[in-house]
From TrEMBL:
It comes from the Bacteria. PANTHER family: OUTER MEMBRANE LOLAB LIPOPROTEIN INSERTION APPARATUS (PTHR30634), OUTER-MEMBRANE LIPOPROTEIN LOLB (PTHR30634:SF16). Residues 219-378 form the VWFA domain. This is VWA domain-containing protein. It comes from Pseudomarimonas arenosa.
Amino acid sequence: MKAANLGPLERWRLLLGDAAETALGDGSGGVLSGASQAMDRALDWLYGRDDEQEDRDVLSRERAADLSASALSVPEWINQIHTLFPKETIERLERDAVEHYKINELITQPEVLQRVQPSQALLEAVLHTKHLMNPEVLAMARNLVAAVVRQLIDALAVELQQAFSGVRNRRQHTRHANARNFDAMATLRANLKHYDPSTRRLVIERALFNSRSTRHLERWQIILVVDQSGSMVSSVIHSAVTAACLSQLPGIDTHLLAFDTEVVNLTDERSDPVELLMKVQLGGGTDIQKAMRYAAELVDAPRRAIIVLISDFYEGAAPHLLVRIVRELCAQGSRVLGLAALDQDAVPAYDRDMARKLVEVGAEVGAMTPGQLARWLAEKLKGGAR
């Protein structure tokens, strides 16, 4: 829920704070519910403090000894406001946090970035606030981004290798021992002669492993089209990592586009996800149809092209044009996959009505982890053109 979707009472309650709860309520319960409660907690985290309060630690805030929700850390707060509020409100909150309340550890103190543990939450906070950092802090932040990206690439590379390495050939065995290819039934049959009835033990003298057939892929185009609005930051990160890994595979021509109301072609930076992420500008409006039109112009062989739209599908421009371009892409034989989330949790929050319309004209829509996307792509590429 963005601020534009709030009712009048919710707006006044958020503006006036806890003291207005009784006056604005109708006696049936609190004025706020759901996302508006999260907005209230984020606002209270910042404005519910005394000016004389000591500078906060970047990792945590003291928790009260009650049953209230856990206090937010600075990175968590930054990530939440970029999900909950519109751009102009975010800018005001960040400015007040830094200039008025001096909550500036993350973006002004290199020693803080040196001692914090690299994590995706911290990476997201850096991407949200890098425009506020001075050059020294930005250099430290880049190192943090690189550390987290390396972790993500290492994890995804294993899943990509498994997805694209070929299929088991159960009729042929190999001397190459690999736990994924262990043929348990054949191993038992081959070693039954070594069974000792007195001890009831079977001695395995020779373990058997299935070989894998090589997948010979014809050249395909994979075009990742990524919404860079603030709420999609996790998907932006995983899209950059996915593009970097896919670009290393033979037979695949990978493109990466980022968009808000404009489209930026980041394909030349796909092999360097750290540099790519440092260039991404989060926030702004959303013109999905323009991005999909740009992607359509990149298609060389329609029946060997997969366009992956990573967005919440809240079209800020012309919804009917978005449906039209997706229909045209599907009609020419291209595959269109719409992802409402591409991250480790794969928890979608999206415009279900628009998603339904895209499915009706031929797209597939879902939410996936990067590993699931890799397996989906491998399956489609193995299946060949339509």
